[in-house]
């Protein structure tokens, strides 16, 4: 089994994690999926070693993924052609696009922790969000082209 040297010259074992030294704390950087509640998600030392805080972090990732899907399929700002507030509506749509992009990247960065639980809740959040907002399963009948003729 070979080993590689870290920045401080100490040999690191060749396995699924690489350890780096930040200050005096060794932080494992996983390169394969692992299952543990001891993980850093998005921020250093968060959620910590507590299983309850890990559950809160998983809930946050799930909600962010659902929000990404909601922002992808909702029409909050409706622009009418020739309206006098085209610029305001365009700025609002652009702002919402920025929020959606930011949330998407936060979910992606959370998944990059390589924690199996984070991966599952991120995918689950996207799936549930798509089911609710992207399909017709939970939409009210509008009497438009989708409704059956009597």
UniProtKB/TrEMBL annotation:
Tell me where the signal peptide lies. Answer: none
Predominant place of localization: membrane
What molecular function terms (GO) are annotated for this protein? copper ion transmembrane transporter activity
Swiss-Prot/TrEMBL keywords = Copper, Copper transport, Ion transport, Membrane, Transmembrane, Transmembrane helix, Transport
The question of whether Transmembrane is a record keyword is answered with yes
Membrane topology term reads: Multi-pass membrane protein
Q: Where in the cell is it found?
A: Membrane
Q: Name one GO cellular component term.
A: plasma membrane
Q: Give the transmembrane ranges.
A: 51-73, 105-133
Q: Which InterPro entries match?
A: Cop_transporter
Residue ranges annotated as coiled coil are none
Protein family membership:
Belongs to the copper transporter (Ctr) (TC 1.A.56) family. SLC31A subfamily.
| PANTHER family with a match to the protein in the record | COPPER TRANSPORTER 4, SOLUTE CARRIER FAMILY 31 COPPER TRANSPORTERS
Name this polypeptide is given: Copper transport protein
Q: What is the organism of origin for this protein?
A: Abrus precatorius
């Amino acid at each position: 089994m070979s080993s590689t040297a870290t920045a401080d010259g100490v040999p690191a074992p060749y396995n699924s994690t690489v350890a780096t030294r930040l200050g005096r704390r060794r932080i494992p950087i996983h390169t394969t999926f692992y299952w543990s509640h001891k993980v850093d998600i998005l921020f250093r030392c968060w959620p910590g070693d507590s299983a309850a805080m890990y559950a809160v972090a998983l809930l946050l990732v799930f909600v962010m993924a659902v929000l990404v899907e909601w922002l992808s399929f909702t029409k909050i700002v409706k622009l009418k052609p020739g309206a006098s507030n085209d610029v305001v509506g365009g700025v609002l749509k652009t702002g919402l696009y920025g929020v959606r992009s930011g949330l998407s990247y936060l979910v992606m960065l959370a998944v990059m922790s390589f924690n199996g639980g984070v991966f599952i809740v991120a995918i689950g959040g996207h799936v549930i969000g798509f089911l609710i907002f992207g399909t017709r399963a939970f939409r009210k009948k509008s009497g438009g082209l989708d409704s059956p003729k009597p």
